[in-house]
Design goal:
Elements (H helix, E strand, L loop, with lengths): L30 E4 L5 E4 L3 E9 L5 E9 L7 E8 L4 E8 L7 E11 L11 E6 L3 E8 L2 E3 L3 E10 L4 E8 L4 E2 L6 E6 L3 E11 L11 E6 L6 E3 L1 E4 L5 E2 L1 E3 L4 E6 L7 E2 L3 E2 L3 E11 L10 E8 L1 E10 L2 E2 L5 E2 L1 E8 L10 E8 L5 E12 L5 E4 L2 E7 L19
Parallel strand pairs: 2-8, 10-16, 18-25, 26-32, 27-33
Antiparallel strand pairs: 1-3, 3-6, 4-5, 4-7, 7-8, 9-11, 11-14, 12-15, 13-14, 15-16, 17-20, 19-23, 21-22, 21-24, 24-25, 26-29, 28-30, 30-31, 31-33
Length: 405
């Protein structure tokens, strides 16, 4: 066996192409080349293939070819090639990356050992060969369900490989849950009701891409409908009034201070006059999904009407005016919840007319309600205006002489 190798002293471990000197022989040399474009080979796993081209080869030649590593460790593998045809092209796929645990470049040469009686084969060209270990796309972690139009974070858990991870590629089998991005986390967005199988691959700085991860099944759940409002409108009676909202099956109500965002609160409730508002959001107790909108619920309490009792209109003698008076002790009628108040205000009483009559209406003004929870209807009284007695003045009787009349 005749073999001549020339090794270069300084060789980049990644991408350099070297030319080896050819051999001299008494016989015509058979030149071994590799096809154009195969000078640099990168293999992340499995085998690689290059086209080997033979010139000046005797038909039926019998050779044993070797792939030899010029750098970094031992990498010799014999390839037995028989019955070669002149100027033949042979694809060799016997060089494997088995046992390589760290990505590194090797320079590979092809040289041949002729069998007895065959011409010598020259050393072939060298080419850079990078080999590494594929990263492993481990299990995806995160919530296994997401609500429609909402999103949840999924995390890729890659391991192994021969370099640093530079990018991730996420995939959804049907788009029900949309995923995107090149980071190790993605926001799975619920696009359509149903389920999706999510996978990813990871690529390292050597360009080696993992096999797809195991599928992570995520379910996209529907949203509850907005709940039905149970508004309350009531007249003040001193009791608590509370609004309600009606959810669907397997749903509950969460209350908020605003139609969007806001802070959690309780159902609207009040006892005094006015309006209290809260917003009801339906939440599915199984999926956790909430309604896309909230329902406004109002509790409104209106004032209670009061009257004044205990007064009687006074009669008067005609005096040409409508001024009136009343007798008795004024009291509020219609107070709720055991409340008591002294009657407030400065009343003014007025006859509806100034002439003499019986049962003339006496209008009242000036009384006030005891609180904002009440309104007050002024009392209406009645009284008589009687005729005033008159006398005639300014006259003197005249004397006369008896005349029998």
């Amino acid at each position: 066996m005749k073999q001549i190798l020339q090794k270069f002293s300084q060789i980049s471990v990644f991408l350099f192409l070297f030319a080896l000197t050819t051999f001299s022989s008494v016989n015509a040399q058979t030149v071994v080349t590799i096809n154009s474009g195969t000078s640099d080979v990168k293999v992340c796993s499995g085998n690689f293939s290059v086209n080997v081209y033979f010139e000046n080869l005797v038909d039926g030649g019998l050779y044993e070819l070797y792939w030899n590593s010029l750098l970094i460790g031992t990498f010799n593998e014999a390839l037995s090639m028989t019955n070669l045809t002149a100027n033949a092209v042979r694809d060799q796929t016997d060089i494997t990356t088995a046992g390589i645990s760290q990505f590194g470049a090797k320079l590979i040469e092809i040289y041949g050992v002729p069998q007895p009686g065959q011409p010598i084969v020259s050393s072939g060209p060298t080419f850079a060969f990078g080999a590494g270990v594929l990263p492993t796309a481990g299990a995806i972690t995160g919530a296994s369900s997401v609500c429609l139009v909402k999103q949840t974070t999924l995390t890729a858990n890659a391991s192994g490989g021969s370099g640093t991870y530079t990018s991730y590629s996420w995939n959804s089998d049907n788009g029900n849950a949309g995923v995107s991005g090149t980071n190790n986390t993605t926001e799975a967005i619920g696009s359509f009701i149903g389920s999706s199988d999510i996978t990813y691959t990871v690529t390292d700085n050597h360009g080696c891409t993992s096999n797809p991860s195991a599928a992570f099944n995520i379910t996209v759940n529907s949203l509850p409908s907005a709940p039905l409002a149970g508004n309350v409108t009531a007249t003040y009676d001193g009791a608590v009034k509370t609004g309600t909202a009606t959810p669907g099956t397997n749903e509950t109500i969460d209350w908020y201070t605003a139609s969007t965002n806001g802070t959690p609160t309780t159902a609207p409730s009040r006892t005094t006059v006015g309006t209290t508002t809260a917003y009801a959001e339906a939440r599915n107790t199984i999926t956790g999904c909430v309604s896309s909108s909230r329902t406004q619920v109002d509790v409104t309490i209106t004032p209670k009407g009061l009257t004044i009792t205990g007064l009687t209109g006074d009669n008067k003698v005609y005096n040409g005016t409508t001024a009136a008076t009343a007798s008795g002790t004024a009291e509020y009628s219609g107070l709720e919840n055991g409340e008591t108040f002294a009657v407030s205000g400065t009343p003014v009483y007025t006859f509806a007319s100034a002439g003499v009559a019986n049962g003339i209406t006496i209008n009242t003004s000036g009384f006030t309600a005891p609180s904002a929870n009440y309104t007050l209807t002024q009392p209406t009284l009645s009284g008589n205006i009687t005729a005033k007695g008159l006398t005639i003045t300014g006259l003197t009787g005249d004397n006369k002489v008896y005349n029998g009349t």
